Amino acid sequence: MSMLMDAWKNTPRNWVGADPCGGKWEGISCYNSRVTWITLAAEGLTGELPGDISYLSELEVLDLSYNTGLSGTLPASIVNLKKLKNLKLVGCSFYGPIPELIGSLQLLESLDLNSNRFTGQIPHSIGNLSKLFLLDLSYNQLDGAIPVSSGTTSGLNMLVNTKHFHLGRNRLSGTIPKELFRSDMTLIHVLLHDNNLTGSIPSTLGLVQTLEAIRFEGNSLTGPVPPNLNNLTTVKTLILSNNKFTGPVPNLTGMAYLSYLMMENTGLEGQIPPTLFDLPSLQTLILRNNQLNGTLDIARSSSSQLEAIDMRNNLISFYSETPEQRNNVDVILVGNPVCERTEATEHYCTVHQANSSFLLPCTSDQISSPNSKFSYPYTGVLFFRPPFLESRNATSYRCLVEESLMHSFKNSRLPVDSVYVNCPTNDSLGYLESNVSVFPSGQNHFNTTTISEIGSVLNLQTIENPDIFGPSHFKGAAYPYFDGKLTVSNKLWSTGSIIGAAAGGASFLLLLLLAGVYAYRLKKRRERASEQKNHFAYLDLKKSDRVPQLKGARCFFFDEITKSTNNFSEANHIGSGGYGMVYRGMLPTGQLIAIKRCRQGSVQGGLEFNAEIEVLSRVHHKNVVNLVGFCFERGEQMLIYEFVRNGSLRDSLSGLSGIWLDWRRRLNVALGAARGLAYLHELVKPRIIHRDVKSANILLDESLNAKVADFGLSKPMDNSELILATTQVKGTRGYIDPEYQETLLLTEKSDVYGFGVVLLELVSGRKPLERGKYLVAEVSSSLDRKKDLYSLHELLDPSIGLDTKPEGLDKTVDLAMKCVQEKGSDRPTMGEVVKEIENILHLAGLNPNAEAESTSASFEEASQDEFPPSLKEEELSLS
């Protein structure tokens, strides 16, 4: 290691002595007194990488990323490190050719040379790296052709196990070889953007079925886009802009997960195929600066995800949309004939600039993180391809990036407390640059290993919700604080110098801190005011007639919710689901509430958040859970409900809640849930399909009255159309309508099917799907074998009490089987279901209009004798 100390300046301060292993040198890991890891990312090192590095024969990881002072050529002797698995030199200043024999490092899993000044051709020998996961050579000055195998010469097409080809922003030339892509590859990212590539996109690209992101923009590619791209069903991001293609917009109907399509300035011509808007996941479409003509008709689109269309500077003559799309889809047709008519004052004939007033001056020194009074963040610049930024809310963008980054850090189990993203600007190629500050958790600084891992996460980040920003590219800054000591230099200071510097530094830090606190508070005050003022726009509640319907739900501050839940304490954690965590809280008024807190970075959570507020803000029924309010401050998304004390029906049937439901109570629960669903189907305007009816989404209050909950998957139903076409089957296995699953047509009868399954659960006590067997099929099969319903003892819940036949049992099973008929047209409506359950209650000698009183009395009486004292009030499921 002495050769590294001689070759580099600004090495860590504890690099003293001759034994890096025994001395526990910063950034050095050992095994059996042999150096195995060197992780010195963002250390501020300067100098060159010495050829003697090859003497570290046991070295497995070499990460010197984000040390811009490291330069020189990559020594050829590095190929002698035969045990090397990770070579990461991101964001340094190395130049010259990549050693031709780099492919002799047979154990290499990551070759990350991003953002240097490497020149020459990509070595053919890289094709020998059979274990390679990541190949990132982007942002260099590499030239020549993309190497593929020929005879005894290897090439990149041999890397069948590699997930990432990142070769963008170089000077690569020639065509994209058809041999580059094979059907046995496992690639997810192919990034060839901003090179000098010519020729056509090879049709072999359509063979790589694992692809998720394709970026070929900024080349001189010609010819038509190959039609077999339609085979790439898992691609989410497709960017082909700034090329010289010919022909029409390709058929992409098979790309079910495509969310971001960008083909601006490509020479496309002809009409836009209407099927383009049937892509189920399409959110952003950018086709500006082409020769597309005819009619842009999105009115028949079945996609519910569409958010933005930019068709500027084409030849579009007519445009058609629905009123709902007018409010929910941002469309720009400036520079088309449709906007040249004198009467063309439509919303799509102007460009609305995003408001960027949320920005504050960026800092790169010590500032405060939310949970640590003094901490040193790791900073750098994150680069994205911007998604239609002109019309997007800048605050939403910022929160989206921060949440996604935090989600990635948590998945990687990194000690990160929080992330701030600020100062977004556009560079000359239209890329978005955002300054990023990552704050440590548990201490006031990061160590070298964590800095290396943070850089890895940021350099492969694909922002979700929607997945249209990535993959990203990160350029880290030097980290000035390791081991509790500022590592600006290693020279010794005199006592007087230290005292003087300390005094001056303390004064500076105090001023900086006061300025930071003032700026932070001012920013928060503005953000709160802005968020409260604009929360309807944030929630896409853009129709003015919807706003008054939110008067029953109020917007909470994050601090209010934190206080009500005792800082989201474990004691108040009462459930979890796909959306996130559920907590119990108490408002200053004494009202108990349940808080659903969206998981950081959750795509599902963001969509459900809007859906539930839209639905619950305009429904008010004693059998539908009441929305108290919501919170979307500090990048959080939380829904606040009335606290429903006795948990879900599923918990009661399974015994988790300790509540016993006799037959009479089960009928009352069925009636309450049916009334809630009938209200949604028949009385709300517009009517609502719940789409996730199940026993876990039927809550029981203190009187055991049923309340329908969880409207995250709900869909409004146009009163003029009984059937709502959709292209995404959503719901819970065991409850999903088979007709909906087969035809992709969603109707209110899909809820009826789910309710029928709930009735069978009430009768049998069983789950809808157990050990691969569906409850509906089991009951149907048994009924076919045994005509006498009451003889089906093996299907009945013994806790009901089978000494005597429960009154109305046969009619209840008969109603359930009608609800789960294969064809929706053969099922009753929820209104008819309500009447039938009322008749069953009459036969059982019960009053269907007094279920609350009777149930409450019997519950209180039974609770003294039947319920265990360990029953927890907080057992609740809202997921």
From TrEMBL:
<dbReference type="InterPro" id="IPR017441">
    <property type="entry name" value="Protein_kinase_ATP_BS"/>
</dbReference>
<keyword id="KW-0418">Kinase</keyword>
<keyword id="KW-0067">ATP-binding</keyword>
<dbReference type="GO" id="GO:0016020">
    <property type="term" value="C:membrane"/>
</dbReference>
<dbReference type="InterPro" id="IPR001611">
    <property type="entry name" value="Leu-rich_rpt"/>
</dbReference>
<protein>
    <recommendedName>
        <fullName>non-specific serine/threonine protein kinase</fullName>
        <ecNumber>2.7.11.1</ecNumber>
    </recommendedName>
</protein>
<keyword id="KW-0812">Transmembrane</keyword>
<keyword id="KW-0675">Receptor</keyword>
<dbReference type="InterPro" id="IPR000719">
    <property type="entry name" value="Prot_kinase_dom"/>
</dbReference>
<keyword id="KW-0808">Transferase</keyword>
<keyword id="KW-0547">Nucleotide-binding</keyword>
<feature type="transmembrane region" description="Helical">
    <location>
        <begin position="498"/>
        <end position="520"/>
    </location>
</feature>
<dbReference type="GO" id="GO:0005524">
    <property type="term" value="F:ATP binding"/>
</dbReference>
<feature type="compositionally biased region" description="Low complexity">
    <location>
        <begin position="850"/>
        <end position="861"/>
    </location>
</feature>
<keyword id="KW-0732">Signal</keyword>
<dbReference type="GO" id="GO:0004674">
    <property type="term" value="F:protein serine/threonine kinase activity"/>
</dbReference>
<feature type="domain" description="Protein kinase">
    <location>
        <begin position="568"/>
        <end position="841"/>
    </location>
</feature>
<dbReference type="InterPro" id="IPR011009">
    <property type="entry name" value="Kinase-like_dom_sf"/>
</dbReference>
<dbReference type="Pfam" id="PF07714">
    <property type="entry name" value="PK_Tyr_Ser-Thr"/>
</dbReference>
<keyword id="KW-0433">Leucine-rich repeat</keyword>
<feature type="binding site">
    <location>
        <position position="596"/>
    </location>
    <ligand>
        <name>ATP</name>
    </ligand>
</feature>
<keyword id="KW-0723">Serine/threonine-protein kinase</keyword>
<keyword id="KW-0325">Glycoprotein</keyword>
<keyword id="KW-0472">Membrane</keyword>
<dbReference type="InterPro" id="IPR032675">
    <property type="entry name" value="LRR_dom_sf"/>
</dbReference>
<feature type="region of interest" description="Disordered">
    <location>
        <begin position="849"/>
        <end position="879"/>
    </location>
</feature>
<dbReference type="InterPro" id="IPR001245">
    <property type="entry name" value="Ser-Thr/Tyr_kinase_cat_dom"/>
</dbReference>
<dbReference type="Pfam" id="PF00560">
    <property type="entry name" value="LRR_1"/>
</dbReference>
<keyword id="KW-0677">Repeat</keyword>
<dbReference type="InterPro" id="IPR008271">
    <property type="entry name" value="Ser/Thr_kinase_AS"/>
</dbReference>
<keyword id="KW-1133">Transmembrane helix</keyword>
